[in-house]
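TICKET #2291
ISSUE: user wants both folds in one file
ATTACHMENT 1:
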Amino acid sequence: MVSPVGYIMILAALLLFFRGRRALMWATLLFVSFFAVEVVDIGVTTIYGFQFFGVLFIARSSIDAIWCRTGLVKPSRANVLAALFLSICFFSLPMAVAKAGVVEVYSEGGGLWMRKMYNPVALELSRFNFTQLAYPTFGILLFHFLVMEIKSRDDIRKVVDILVMGSLVVAGMSITAGVLYTIGQGEVYSKTLGIFAVGEFGAKGPEAGSIGRFFRTYTIAGEPGFTAVTLLVGTGLVTGDFLKKGKSLVSWPMTKLSILTLAILINGSTTGYFGAGLLISWSVIAPLYLGQGSIADVIRPFVYVLVGLLVVGGIVSTIQVSGLGFYEWLNTYHIAKLQGEGAGSGATRLYVSWYTLKNVFLSSPILGVGYGSHLSLSFVTFLLANIGVLGFGAFLAFIYTVFRNSKKTAKKAKGTLEKAAFMGSFVFVPFFGTLFIGKSAVSMLFGLTWAVIALAEATYQVYRRESRDPHQGVPTT
């Protein structure tokens, strides 16, 4: 079954495949911000837009490398650790057989979490393990070929532009949805979302407030949580550009930052507010830690953050949501969510995480119970339960190595590459902090996970090439 927009995307993808791998790379990056855009349902899983273009990009890159004999692999520490992580994911599968019938897990069946959490099933190796394994395999390959293909400062700048623009499109959709629902035309928005889905999109109308129906909006980035994470990436990149001295890589940074901040605020997602808190805290520490090198540079963002919070805080104090003052709604809604029932509640997350660590992880702490065998509501506990401390450690080592490489580039490179590396490093911490705590296994499927890692590593690889051969780049601009 193909989505309405899927027919156009399939035709475009085939044309781009013959045009070349770089065209497919830009198409893939364009769609990573639009996580919920579906192309086709193949029965065992749904193929999303960034996956569809990404698979063709990987295939075309592999064909070109073999045909031109340029090599499929470019050795680097990050690639080695990525390969190690993926290998452990595969090597963990026998544990699903070894522990079959001994451990009870949360599988893909079982219905809603409120029913599933009290009815774990016996562990077994199933088709679901292999469909889940496709996600880290795709992600690692996408990371590898993106880093290989992002070859210059101009390429890095284009990647930044695409990710920021994608976030702005999502922000625009959030605000437009609020306007349409407020004037009674919400059905227009719902039908528009249906163009991007196989079947019904499943969006819900935003909550009512004194400024209209803006809060808790679904977009082509997904439900409010993933919409918020997408907005967080754009906000992090623009904030990094704003904080780092030098020529701006983002045009109209303050305007774009204002739009993205407004969109996060009215998004109303607990995940979004948690990520925003991490971003604000990190913005005070990051300039000194990532190489700005002056106390004044630490005080400056702190003052901006303080003034910004006071201004925003004063504005939102005039807003009502569902008949409550904004702060009262914020407290009531999120406290109720944390204490209530359902997959998003704190009580459910705590119960599932505790069960995962106590009953699943401790039953096989080294290699886990096999990738994809057990579902959890936290990315951290998902990794620990399924691939154990070896797999979780390999993944942490992989992303830490990329972060360290980008940090090194931010301190040593000059000009636009220095700023791009700072921006990549800056967005890293709040982004992965939010994914690890606020999201689960789907983080491995999330396109921005691999795009953010690839951007950070690409800045380092471009810096290395320029250091070996200064004629490949223009290090001072």
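ATTACHMENT 2:
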Amino acid sequence: MIHIQEKYKKKLHKLTNRVGAAIMAIEVFLAMLIIIAVLISGVALVISVVQQGSLTHLLDYDNFQSLLSYLLMLIIGLELALMLIKHKPSNVIDVMIYAIARKMLIYSTATIEMLVGVIALGILFIIKVSLKKAKVEEDQDIANN
């Protein structure tokens, strides 16, 4: 009976490892698709800016806001790809910070929206700092042992 349970546990462990590896492969594939999309979009952005002929076009507030929105979306895409590959809590925080910053810079018009965004960013920065402190303490504990 005990032998059968151990055999079952080994098979279950192998299956779990294979499923985990398959999920990781899918995540890396999706991250690569995101990176390719960001690269293509970045090239398209550069071509678009060059075709418009002058930088004075970018000095217009609406055009600059549109460019900034586009750039922040590309940054969020890259951070999302990084999050899919590395699986670190700080990467999730980074994606959230960029998304909130984009929302505040591009779409926020009401004062209450801006206040909520600032509070959310403050909380996320506190979480990020505490994660870094915990990582440093963990590294020190490992080095001391």
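RESOLUTION: both attachments delivered.
EXTRA DETAIL ON ATTACHMENT 2: The first helix runs from residue 2 to 51.
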